[in-house]
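User: Hi! Is it possible to get a structure for several chains at once, not just one? Here's what I have:
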Amino acid sequence: MMSQYTPMIQQYLSIKAAHQDAFLFFRLGDFYEMFFDDAVQAAQILEITLTSRDGGSQDRIPMCGVPYHSSAGYIKTLVENGYKVAICEQVEDPKQAVGVVKREVIQIITPGTVIDDHLLQDRENNYLVSIERENDLFAYVLCDLSTGELKGYTYIGNQLSFIQLLLSQGVKEIVGDEELHTDWNEKMSLNGQASISVQQETTVEEKFQHLTIDITPLPLLKAAGRLFHYLNYTQKRSFQHLKPVEYQQNDLRMKLDAFSKRNLELTESIRAKGKKGSLLWLLDSTMTAMGARKLKQWVEEPLFVKKTIEKRLQLVEELINEFFIREEMKEQLKSVYDMERLIAKISYGNASPRDLVQLKRSLLSVPVLKEKISQIPGEYASEIYEKMKDHKELAQFLDSAVHDEAPVQIKEGGIIKKGYNAKLDEYKDASMNGKAWIAALEQKEKTETGIKSLKIGFNKIFGYYIEVTKSNLSMVPAERYERKQTLANAERYVTPELKEKERIILEAEEKISGLEHTLFLEVREYVKQYIPGLQQLASAISELDVIQSFAAISEQYRYVRPTVSEDGKVNIVGGRHPVVEKVMDAQEYVPNDIFLNNERNMLLITGPNMAGKSTYMRQLALTAIMMQIGCFVPAEQAELPMFDQIFTRIGAADDLVGGQSTFMVEMLETNFALTSATENSLILLDEIGRGTSTYDGMALAQSIIEFIHERIQAKTLFSTHYHELTVLENSLPSLKNVFVSAVEENGSLVFLHKVIDGQADKSFGIQVAELADLPQDVIQRAKTILQTYEKQEKNEALPIQEVSAAKEEVQESQLSLFAEKSTVSRKRDLKENDVLKDLKALNVLEMTPLEAMNALYKLHTKLK
Ligand code: ADP
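Assistant: Yes, the chains can be modeled jointly so their relative placement is included. Here is the combined structure:
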């Protein structure tokens, strides 16, 4: 029953009812208070004291609070933990309020909508994503509120891969309808990486329609509509800095799924989980935070449009040639601040005076930057030049209005420059004169009274006073001095003329701070009209920054400009893995060639462990990605086609992902690659099939190779330790064997890291054992056993399936079934048929890894 509570608690409860999914920060004087469950939970998370208060009911109400002035840190903790915070302020003057002061939620701070510096990473975007789902189509809009960027996508595929993709892009918050909310919250393991919010409404309101003019797919429009409603609901203000939704058409980009991104260590290294050791880390020589974010976006979304790739490559080449111009550009870029986020703050109305100074400083670098870029030939350079309006007038205006040393706070004064506003200057003069007059008065009184230690001071309660120490009291002119305050060893006095001056000074100061505040708000408001132009400028600067970074890195590591091949040919001479090369200290990286064309589109790579198989495969993928983001590539010479997708799969035994990689996951990933790849894709399969028993694994590996060879014809590199598979070269015309060589030299095994056509010598395992000084008897015996095995294998070698027959049998979406059919069918008995049925019935996409393990275990036991 509401009525049992005090009116204030009733007000609290009714506001809380509308904000169930957020911590309600309820403003009471200088504190934000929380009550009931919010208080109990927040006290725990924030490690603050839980108290209670009387709220009119029988029981006391749990309560905790944080001071308004230090609330930022607490909000940060909550938001970083995935929670939302609804800020509820008093919206009327408590002095004028009748009854309980009116309060309203003025903003809801959520993980995906933060724009405050201390809640954001400089060099990373902070994404909120809004989703509209229609069967297996996901339309979604990525929004970074702190920069105003909106990007629209469509994705077709299974839910799990889609979520992985979102998480790999660093999405902090997901907005969907109630169904998605329930579905994902209950069934999908987001591991606290992103929070899910609900917004049902999907129509695009009129005031946002200018942001969606380029959007045609209806589901995408709905996703955008949902996003805008959510922004409205949480932020409760206008968004002048939101840029139109850029529709990222699928056929204009290289598609990379989350597994591949992770396996290729594009933005994060697998072991350390940090940026270090990733491709992004290697390529990042950007000077600005905006450039760093743009680079990350480019790395995550390589292009599939030859013209744009060439355009970028051209500018990289020009900048490599123009070392001095590039160096001067770099100097200028260093003084460009994070304009995108400054603009967002201006639009939000919370830019500080210092932010405006940073904006001005950034603008002052533009003319020099423009002059430099104007000296560079080419289409892209002039495009950037055109987008770089220097906004001289705005720079001058800001320079005339705001002090260079302006504070962060807007209430402190000291913001507006002299000469900007006559009235303000007048008040400042008055205050200055008054202060000078007081300094003079002190001198005068000293002489007149003869009290050398007499001084004039000021405090907030008594204002200006004349202070005389006890020992000098006899010299005080009692007729003029009026006593004001007595201290332990001094008396304080005022005189009528001092009072009068004080009035003038204090009045002036009050007016100054009031007027400075008003003027600053005006200045900030005025800047708003420049937002679109400034955004264009910011985007031009960030692109220039990325390209200069490419040029710097390409020059430093001797990369070359690749040629985009039109006929699917890969011809890389002296190629290197850029990151491995960079982190190698003592040894030299051994360059390798890669040649592929339509008659040779699959390489089966063998070689001892640690020889460099994975490195060789990744080298090709990274080279392709570098080309498709417009950077030079690590090789002496490189020609390669644009790939529409790259798939990288790693055998489960490698277990790279902290124990998560079970055989089931490996198969799921492989399934995804096989069903989505086209002949324009690149597939890297590293030791696939390794996570199960030898014959199983080999059978799967072989059938996967056959499938790709016949059905997909994608460029494929397949590394394996199953030497038996090398016989496939005889039956599959476009498959070729290569191996990574190693030799024994003076009794030690030396990895040459050189990739050569043909197949590897298999006996290195025993050689390694020999190196480890195992007894000669053991080694000799092992060699004999090995020979026996080899003989047996020759007799038993699995016949290569009639490929066309396999083709008939293959079921595209059910890899395990397909693998089973094409290879093991000879041995199948009824029991196995049963197991198959069970397997078919599993709803794999809805299972947790643990459930999958259990199911797998059950099937396995049945077969025993
Ligand atoms: P594999 O996949 O054959 O087990 P990796 O590709 O993981 O082997 O390579 C093992 C190590 O060998 C790498 O970590 C790297 O240090 C080194 N390596 C690989 N390729 C080269 C190369 N071309 N030149 C120099 N060192 C290399």
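The two ends are 64 Å apart (CA to CA). Residues 580, 589-590, 592, 607, 609-615, 740, 753 surround adenosine-5'-diphosphate (CB under 6 Å).

User: Great, thank you!
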